[in-house]
Design brief:
- Two copies of one chain form a homodimer.
- Chain A is mainly α.
- Chain A has one domain: Tetracycline Repressor, domain 2 (Orthogonal Bundle).
- Chain A has nine helices and no strands.
- In chain A, helix 1 (4-19) packs across helix 4 and helix 6 packs across helix 7 (112-133).
- The N and C termini of chain A lie far apart (49 Å).
- Chains A and B meet through helix 6, helix 7, helix 8 and helix 9 of A and helix 6, helix 7, helix 8 and helix 9 of B.
- Chain A binds a DNA duplex through residues 4, 25-27, 35-39, 41-43, 46-47.
DNA sequence: CCGCCATTGTAGCGAGTGCTACAGTTGTAG
DNA sequence: CTACAACTGTAGCACTCGCTACAATGGCGG
């Protein structure tokens, strides 16, 4: 059985995924959910509390989707599969929200900074496991994920700028090669 | 001679670099600049107009700094020099603001979306010239910049999460290798 | 039936927002 | 001196914000 709070958190997440975190206001959100700001603040201690809950719901979805990805035949294929998942309609909205939250946390503003920190931890762990399952050694995975995660986040941030740009698709291929090189190389460090 | 508007734009930029775009409000900003919200709206048509001006000033600084970088002995060195520049005290604040603006533009909100679009164009061009001056062919430069720019943006976004992390430094080295590989390879595409 | 507790509606507070109307006050050109 | 334009201060409008005080309503255990 799901509590009313969880139900509201999920519905609110859908709303935020669509409208963004930045202008988020309790009254329009409540209207969309068929309730009132009064009730949101009854179930959540404050707006920040609600936002934190929403961020966690969205990140849980992202992480779950990555964990559900099957092991790929090689690192390169894993990267491409991850990119495909991350740009799918469902996850792209979550990623966009993550990027927005991370940007809001850039100046240490709470609750964004803390929640983003823990979300990133979970996300990195999930991606690392995908790489390991796809042939990367446990030892090498962290390095590979570091570049992979940063590049993908960067792609997401510029997505509205150059969606469909063939240069972007090429860059993803290049990224896959680079990550494969890191995962396979015997280089320094 | 600089107009009052330009002077205000520069001062406002310093303020925004320190406090961020998100909670930006005319009255506190004006107080810091020794003027009033009334005057800001006299010199700038609207808050959005002011914000656009600020974004342009900050981006001009970033681009100028990149253009001032000397040609490096090889692509790898160029990437490392760029990263050093971008994480220097002066530029890191500009980069942080760019990331914030890009995030605000994720949902198409103006004036962020448009200004970020043109800022990105200038930035990419400047970085491409640095790579070319450092040995990349003009033909290969766009591909190299695509990955380079995305990865660096991603690093910036996670900087508060793991500043000083040795994994980050390693990732920058890996990125340099990857970009060098793209710039030098005769691969497909 | 009573009392309790989770839940909800109404109304509003205090603060802050971008922006504007209006009345000056300069400095300068004719 | 005058007229005009550039600039600046005061006050306030209309609105939204997160949040709260207060008073119900409903169902369930005793």
């Amino acid at each position: 059985m799901t509590t009313r709070r969880e139900e509201l958190a999920r519905a609110a997440t859908d709303y935020v995924l669509e409208h963004g975190l930045v202008g988020l206001s309790l009254r329009p959100l409540a209207a969309r959910l068929g309730t009132s700001d009064r009730m949101l603040l009854y179930h959540f201690a404050s707006k920040d509390d609600l936002v934190a809950a929403v961020l966690r719901v969205a990140n849980d979805r992202s992480v779950a989707e990555v964990r559900a990805l099957p092991a790929a035949p090689g690192v390169r294929a894993a990267v491409l599969a991850l990119w495909a998942a991350v740009t799918s309609p469902r996850l792209s909205a979550c990623q966009r929200m993550y990027v927005e939250a991370a940007a809001l946390g850039l100046f240490g503003r709470e609750p964004y900074a803390s929640v983003v920190r823990e979300a990133n931890r979970d996300w990195v762990a999930a991606v690392a496991e995908l790489l390991v399952a796809s042939g990367t050694t446990r030892e090498r995975a962290p390095r590979a994920v570091a570049l992979l995660d940063a590049a993908m986040t960067g792609f997401q941030l510029d997505l509205p700028l150059d969606a469909g740009d063939p240069l972007l698709e090429q860059a993803v291929l290049d990224l896959a090669d680079a990550v494969a090189a890191i995962a396979g190389a015997q280089g320094s460090a």
